[in-house]
Every structure is written in C-alpha cells, then in structure tokens.
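Per reviewer request, we include the raw input and output of the structure prediction for the construct analysed in the revised manuscript.
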Amino acid sequence: MYGQPVDAPVSGTTVVALVNTITSLFSLYDRYLEYAKLKEQEITKRQQIEAEKEATIAKIRQTQEFVIGYLNHAFDERARNFRQLFERIDGAIERGDNTQLAMLLETLVKYAQTSPFTQLADLAKVKGYLKDSSHVWEL
C-alpha cells in the first residue's frame, strides 16, 4: 500500500490547519534568519571591542613605559642635583661663607619643594605628545 494515493476527503479545517502550519514554518524560518543575522552582528561587535581593548592596553603600556622612564630619569637627575647642592653646602660650611650657605640652603629647600610629578600633571599634553610621532622626547 505504500506509494499508492490515499483517497481521503480534505476538509476546509484540514486545509486551514495545513496553511497555518506552513505559515508558522515560514515565520519560524524568518525568525531564524533574523537570529543568524543578529548573531553575526554581535560577533563583529565583539571583535571590534576586542580590537579596541588591545589598542587601549597598548596605549596604557606605552604611557606606562614613558612615565617610568621619565620618573627614572627625573629622580636620577634630582639625586645628582641634591648631591651637588650638599657638596656646595659642605664647601660653604668649610669656608665659613654664610652668605653662600644661606643661598644654597634656600635653593635646597625650593628644589625639595618641587616635584617631578608636576610636569606630568598635564596628562592631556603628555597624551598629545604620545600621539605625535614627530615629537622628540628628551630624557
């Protein structure tokens, strides 16, 4: 009996049910296509976010290296300057030169009150320098 047509009466209800089923299947397929499109868009967004994350991390590391290099240089320079000031203070004391001693002590206090961090306070300027490939960094 397989392969032989079945003579069954088709009622209006059966046709309506069949049409509803087919319509539902098409609707389901349309929703699947929307889902697939949305999924691809979200994957693309995730890839863009990942790329932005990597670029931001690279900028942070570049800034970190710059700041650490700058501070190493600034503190080395400050240490040298303090050593030189103390050597001159010792010389003024040995010579009994109170005028020079007072001037050197005033210079020492003013220099101690300054901070290499003040030059890094304007981060916008530093960021601008980092973006400018022609900027020459002097360390």
